[in-house]
Amino acid sequence: MIRGVRYIAREVFSFVNRGDAVLCSPVAAAEDRRVSTRATGIVGIAILCSRVLGLIREMVFAGLFGAGRNLDAFLMAFRLPNLLRDLFAEGALSTAFITTFSKKIAVDGDQSAWRLANKVATLTAVFMSAVTLLGIVFAPQLVDLLTWGSWSPDKTALTILLTRIMWPFMLLVSLAALVMGILNAKHVFGPPAMASSYFNLGSITGGVAIGWWLDPHFGARSLVGLAIGTLIGGAWQLTGQFPSLRGVGYKYRADFHWRDEGVRTVLTLMGPAVIAASAVQVNVLINSGFAASLGNGPVSWLNIAFRLMQLPLGIFGVAIGTVTLPLVSKSAAVGNMDEFRAILARGIRLAFLLTIPSAIGLAMLASPIISVIYQHGRFTAEMTRETAGALQFYAVGLVSYAVLKVLTPAFYAIGQRNTPMLVSFLAIGANLFLNWLFTFRLGWGHRGLAFSTSLVATINFLLLYALMRRHVSRLETRQMLIGLGKICLAGALLALVCWAANYWWLDAWAGLRFFPKLCELLVAIAFGAMVFFSGAFLLRVSEVQDIVDLLRRRLR
Hints:
By secondary structure, this protein is mainly alpha-helical. The protein has 21 helices and no strands. Helix content is about 85%, strand content about 0%.
């Protein structure tokens, strides 16, 4: 898996170095390729560590509380600051700042870029502090908005308390995202990618320790400890990047002179991005209301299933998107559209190759995977079945989610910032209709919400791809469709392996203990992966053949 991520780096960065060959010597270009490959390999490892720790965090919380009333309250309280984090910090702010900051470095140099960073950091701290205070004051109204007033008074009161404790997390993580943007623009990818691991470690150790101190039996009162642990994790996520920030030469100085061209550019890019991302968050709020209205459990089942879907999404989709954004921004800034198209098309093809088998595996091995990871403590077999049903429907949209991580930021790089915003408005209407259709009209319950989410992501991807192809004239579509067909044929072989494992093997393991079940599941996954990539190699999928060639050269 790590070698695959390193290959992503090699392929993506190779296009940039081809474009830079005019400006630098072949020796320098070769050195750049080695440095870039190593850096992005580290990104893949760091993201993998973060996702695994995130799963451990979910495992611990699910084992302590089960998927019911208390965990529902905690997850709903965390959803509010987490939504705004996605909206401002890791969404609009990160994309707008990296795009502007990268261009500032390329055109005006480091000192001008540092001045811009000081202004944006000061503005972010002031604005997010004000939003934090407002969130604490109006927490009751926000919780009612999320739950549609369908929860009992005691569950609502608990959710309000946890919301007020965790709301400052949004300020911490917003500043952490800004630091990440500075480091990524300076081609420092590893420490920012590891920062989310610090969050998970802090929230697990601090949250469980304080929760046990408040209530050794881990009742509702211990949730306060988990909320405080979230703040500990957020602070660690921010401060853990400071050494790398000093290493690139940045020193923060408060700067309130916000009437600056660079600041205006960031805000101008953020406006449509915030509106576009707010449409996504509106969909999340709608889904939360639907889930809350279904009683105790659906909020937790959907959250756990979505977390599992985010594991391959983070390792592959986010890794490719993290590397691609500064590169396409650079290509667009210097007007090299051939390079822009090549980087973007290769990123999309790699996302297809790595997430299609992941989606098939998650859909067909959903119950065994959730049983191994979560079914312990207060997490029952019934909770496993309900969560597995949601995961199967979430897996349908995994490929689209991954490609959107690569495709959406590219619109901001070429100045088409309104396009994702307009498409996202269509998604709100589609999400409302599909939620009503699948959840209530067809009676699919929480599974309908997961399926609706996947369909909306797929619609978003298809529309944005068509619009991007129109903007850049061509996007290697024919080559992409041929490769996609071959990957789907190899995926059919993987699906056959997963079906056989479920039918002949994994269905009979209910009475086994944890480690025997884990070993059997890992064997099934490893064999399925071997069959898939062998089939893709025999079908001459070019990316897989390049991986094999790379491994052969390294073995020699």
